[in-house]
Specification:
alpha+beta, 6-stranded mixed beta sheet, 3 helices, extended
Length: 211
């Protein structure tokens, strides 16, 4: 074989090697690009799935929260312990022993007569002038609680048989028992009273006679 033939063969072999290398490089680049694209798609799919799962979990939590009925507390009496000295027309709503003393809860009202009674009755849609020329206005639901001097006597007009316009007195202990129906006696719960408060303590209680 002459020198020219050897050179030709060498060139052919070298060209084949170059072609093979180029082809391999191309395959590598294509494969690498495909792998990168696949990886990107897989990552995007994972992120989308995670987002969907998070949204579903949030929706389930919201649904669970809204399906639970709100807890409502039982309404309690509004009791204002502020001391107010004076004489007040009031309804008595509670007489209880607690904290080493006896406490009376009051619901202030107004005992009106004459023109004031007629005007108040008309404003309330009641008969005006009102029967017996008096009208009781009780529009404020605020309650006030005060300690009571249990050594006092209480004046009542209600009796077991009816009323005693002139009034009569009973010990505070009997008044408390009648009010709470611990023992037989006149029905006085729901009747109006005049209550005197001195230095923040109830010192006098007198039932208002109603004809």
């Amino acid at each position: 074989m002459d020198l020219r033939s050897k050179k030709t063969i060498a060139m052919l072999v070298g060209g084949a090697v170059v072609v093979a290398l180029v082809a391999g490089l191309a395959v590598f680049l294509v494969t690498s690009s495909a792998n990168d694209e696949a990886q990107k798609r897989a990552t995007a799919a994972e992120e989308q799935l995670a987002s969907l799962l998070a949204s579903a979990a949030a929706g389930a939590t919201t649904s669970a929260e809204t399906s639970v009925p709100p807890v409502t507390e039982e309404a309690s009496e509004t009791v204002d312990p502020t001391a107010e000295d004076g004489k007040f027309f009031t309804y008595i709503t509670k007489v209880v022993d607690k904290n080493g003393g006896t406490y009376v809860t009051l619901d202030y009202a107004e005992f009106l007569t004459g023109k004031k009674a007629a005007d108040a009755a008309a404003a309330a849609g009641e008969e005006s002038p009102p029967p017996n020329d008096y009208f009781i206005s009780n529009v404020n639901p605020k309650l006030r609680e005060f300690p009571a001097d249990t050594a006092m006597n209480v004046t009542l007009t209600s009796t077991s048989d009816g009323v005693a316009a002139e009034g009569y007195t009973v010990p505070f202990g009997d008044f408390q028992d009648y009010f709470n129906k611990v023992k037989p006696g006149p029905t006085i719960k729901g009747q109006p009273f005049w209550v005197t408060i001195t230095n923040g303590t109830i010192t006098k209680i007198a039932e208002q006679y109603l004809p």
